[in-house]
UniProtKB/TrEMBL annotation:
Topology of this chain in the membrane: Multi-pass membrane protein
Membrane-spanning residues: 52-73, 85-104, 124-147, 159-177, 189-209, 246-267, 288-314, 326-350, 370-392, 404-423, 521-540, 552-572
PANTHER family named among the record's database cross-references: PROTON CHANNEL OTOP (PTHR21522), PROTON CHANNEL OTOP3 (PTHR21522:SF36)
Superkingdom: Eukaryota
Record-given protein name: OTOP3 protein
Length: 587
């Protein structure tokens, strides 16, 4: 009995100790989980607080600069353009100090850049930064040259401001080219504030370029031979600087907008840790496969648009442009815009028919692409509505007015349909890369060429093994041999072309009809958006030069409307090309 009594308590003690051990283990696991979750919550709270603080900083800088620019517009005596330039020069210098500190200090710290966003800083975005930045540098050079010639009647600030601008553009372009993919892991708040300050500075530079019509009015008054305070001693050089300034003026606004988009993605990536699921193992590459009709129709649109553009530029440079050139210009748009809209609608319907899953992973670049597409489209849509109101209120039955009215309505519809098609395509997952071509057919075609190469080699060996007595051939035999060799090379070239065409046809026939149609539409829209980007970028502005809306709203008001909407419209076309290329690759 005593043994049993003793054994029972011992048994309960063992079980009790086991229970206490397991309870301790569960407690430790629960505490560790709770500790990790609390750390993650604190990190999220710190991230949100840093984003809020840097956003408030940018908002205050933008409001201060906007107040200066608006005061200059409404009261040019109290707040002059020189005052605005001084404020923007101070902001540029602060941004330069921060960018240099980031390049030499922040990015070189240990464990500073552990992750890089593969979706950010696409090559076409960084290429546009370099292109528009180079044009902006030339614009500032023309402005410096123009102000230097007229230094007797212009202030020194008009030379200092573009000089600082050249340094700012070069440093910022280098920074965005090398560090646009960074997910910085140190000095989060300071980096966010620096990025937001740079974004605010670019926004203010864009706003000043949109609203400042001082030099444009001065150039127009000189072209009309009106009396001006500043008379240029060398008329030829002044005209060169003026023409260069007007030609490159839209590129400066494009540069500011592109830089803001890249800087915003960097701001979103501060402190971001990318998991392996976000890193693509195989990045889709652009290959000209699966398209036949899209390149043909798009190339036709580009060639016709280039001809219309050159005709327009020749006629519109005169003081009194002919009415016929505006009719041709609007007619080209009236034919092209419905084709683009129909293509976008068909592509959206095919997206609805496809059974593809949506890509729900967090992607700041794609989110920004959607916002930029919707926001940039507001420029052309806004100008179109202003134009519609002016044309309907004046004389909509006139031929030119009716063409301009149809152009504005079709432009609104085309922007909306294209946005729906591109945004829907960006959110689709990439199709599984199955074997798009049958290798058997390719091998049989590729096997034909080596056989011919063997025959040519055997012929060459036979010629090399001829006895020395037969080397003294006549010129006719040498000519016949050269002709035969050229014939063989032509046949080899034909075989190469035949092999490439057969492989292309096999690839095209292997794709499903949905993917073929999507690629055809995407490529067609890419080429159309390229020509629609080129025409307004290099000076075709009928919405300002036809004089109808300008006479209705007044010069200053319509200048601000056009300068606000036109850069956004050009940026929309350029940004649509990138989105459509991604839709083409992932189709």
């Amino acid at each position: 009995m005593s043994d049993k009594k003793v054994s029972r308590p011992c048994h309960h003690c063992k079980s009790g100790s086991a229970q206490t051990d397991t309870s301790k283990i569960h407690y430790e696991k629960f505490w560790l989980y709770r500790h990790c979750s609390s750390v993650q919550q604190r990190d999220r709270q710190a991230q949100k607080a840093g984003q809020l603080f840097s956003g408030l900083l940018a908002m205050n800088v933008v409001f201060l600069g906007s107040a200066f620019i608006s005061s200059m517009i409404f009261n040019k005596v109290a707040i002059t353009l020189a005052d605005v330039w001084i404020l923007l020069s101070i902001l540029k210098v602060l941004c330069l100090f921060w960018i240099i500190y980031y390049l030499l200090g922040t990015s070189r710290q240990p464990h500073a850049v552990l992750y890089r966003d593969s979706h950010a800083g696409a090559i076409w975005i960084r290429g546009s930064v370099l292109l528009f930045g180079s044009c902006s540098i030339l614009l500032n050079v023309f402005q410096i040259g123009y102000s230097t010639i007229l230094v007797h009647c212009k202030s020194r600030v008009e030379i200092v401001f573009p000089s600082i601008g050249i340094l700012f553009i070069c440093t910022q372009a280098y920074f965005l080219w090398h560090h646009s993919k960074d997910c910085i892991q140190v000095q989060h708040n300071f980096t966010r504030c620096g990025l937001m300050l740079t974004i605010a500075t670019n926004l203010l530079l864009w706003l000043l370029a949109v609203t400042n019509d001082t030099l444009h009015v001065e150039i127009e008054s000189q072209l009309r031979n009106e009396t001006t305070l500043c008379t240029c001693p060398n008329t030829t050089i002044c005209k060169v600087f003026q023409k260069g300034y007007i030609l490159l003026y839209p590129f400066n606004t494009e540069y500011c907008l592109v830089c803001c988009s890249v800087l915003y993605v960097m701001w979103k990536n501060v402190g971001r840790r990318i998991s392996h699921h976000h890193i693509p193992h195989t990045k889709p590459k652009f290959k000209l496969q699966g398209v036949v009709f899209g390149p043909l129709l798009g190339t036709s649109a580009v060639i016709i648009g280039a001809c219309v553009f050159m005709m327009y530029q020749i006629q519109a440079t005169s003081l009194v442009p002919s009415r016929q050139v505006f009719v041709i210009y609007y007619s080209y748009y009236i034919v092209l815009l419905p084709l683009m809209s129909v293509g976008a609608v068909i592509g959206t319907m095919i997206h609805a028919l496809e059974k593809k899953e949506l890509d729900t992973l967090k992607n700041p670049t794609r989110s920004l692409d959607v916002v930029l597409l919707m926001g940039a489209a507001l420029g052309q849509i806004g100008m179109s509505y202003f134009s519609i109101v002016a044309l309907v209120a004046t004389d909509p039955r006139d031929l030119l007015n009716s063409l301009a009215l149809s152009y504005s309505v079709l432009l609104i519809f085309q922007n909306i349909t294209q946005n729906v098609f591109v945004i829907d395509g960006l959110h689709r997952q990439r199709a599984v890369a199955a074997t798009e071509a049958k290798h058997a057919g390719q091998h049989t075609v590729a096997a034909e060429l080596p056989r011919e190469e063997e025959t040519t080699l055997s012929r060459k060996q036979e010629h090399s093994q001829t006895p020395p007595g037969k080397e003294e051939d006549t010129k006719e035999e040498q000519n016949r041999e050269a002709y035969s060799q050229r014939r063989v090379s032509v046949l080899e070239l034909g075989q190469e072309i035949r092999k490439a065409s057969l492989s292309y046809i096999q690839t095209y026939s292997h794709l499903s009809w949905k993917r073929r149609v999507l690629r055809e539409i995407s490529f067609f829209l890419v080429l159309c958006n390229i020509i629609l980007w080129v025409m307004p970028t290099f000076g075709a502005h009928p919405i300002f030069e036809n004089g109808m809306e300008r006479s209705f709203y007044g010069y200053s008001t319509w200048f601000v409307i056009v300068n606000f909407g036109l850069p956004l419209g050009v940026f929309y076309r350029m940004h649509s090309v990138g989105g459509l290329l991604e839709v083409y690759v992932t189709a």
